Amino acid sequence: MNNQLSDILTIHHQALNVFPYWTDDLIDLWENSIVDLLNDIQKELPIKEFYLRLQKLSALLNDGHTLIFLPDKIKNDLTYAPMTLTVIENQLVINSSDKNFSDFIFKPIKSINHLSVSEFLKIVSSHYWQHNINESLIMAQNNFSFLFNTHSFEIEFENGDKQEIPFLPDKTNFSNFYSDTLSNNCQILEEHDAIRIYKVANKIIVHLTHFMSDEMTAIFYKYIPEYLTCEEIIFDLRNNGGGNSGYANEITQAFFNSTFETEKISTQIIVGEYIASGIILNTDNYDPNKETDPELIKMNKMLHHQYLTSRVEKNHYKQYEGLLKDIPVKILQNEQTYVSGK
């Protein structure tokens, strides 16, 4: 119980400090849920129930950034689905799998484990990101056995077909599925967790899954000779979860001869005329004209001496500049392509 109390208080403190832009109503809901969970912890919650409650708690914030990582005590018992799920045009489908279930790719699903599609998706979104079901499905991929307390999915498809898909003790490498779907004459140049490079006919496909590896830039530039002789480069950024946009900028430099613009940055500037320190901006519901506390009045006067400066950030990596400036490029992205990917 003590560990659970420590965990929930730590999460509560960190969340309020990391995300100060939540509305008062949302913070009230968060606080009430925290209190409810603290009360239940005193009744000795089983560890699985505790982490399910933590996941639902984080999902309340609905920001897509908060994610509860499961402890080893739970992860050691996990099994893994040999397929991935996504929603396309309001239909739940399998969009990749190992070879045993490839016949079911993109067939609309009617139910999973006797749950309707809407019931299944509601459970997933209520534990991850409420307003982005496909991102929630990605987040839940390795936790389906925990979330649904099962080691298999019994799937009924809209066309009446039924298939039980047993989970596996190890995670499936879906990069194999990606390359298998390209074509029979696909040549694998590189397969890395963050960057996968394939040659199909006279085109190069660079599949960037995220920007969180300091190796990806070197891997990309290793194949300059192949790029220079290809018809075009296709960057596949679908489902790219983002990360360090600096890695994206380093790759981008190959297509620019000089400095190029990346993103607009705004900075809040405060002149410490009354108080020589920063302060969080007032909420919309706060009326400084009705304030009676002398210290807060000073703070509000200080807030009138603030302004925003904006600039467009630029980057230049001379060692990479213009190496591929004449090569045509296509970019594939979807709603799961995060900001640094874009």
Automatic annotation (TrEMBL):
Full protein name: Tail specific protease domain-containing protein
Locate the Tail specific protease domain: which residues? Answer: 206-338
Q: What is the originating organism of this protein?
A: Vagococcus hydrophili
Domain of life of the organism in this record? Bacteria
One of this protein's GO BP terms? proteolysis
InterPro entries associated with the record? ClpP/crotonase-like_dom_sf, Tail-specific_protease
One Pfam family cited in the UniProt record for this chain: Peptidase_S41
Single GO molecular-function term? serine-type peptidase activity
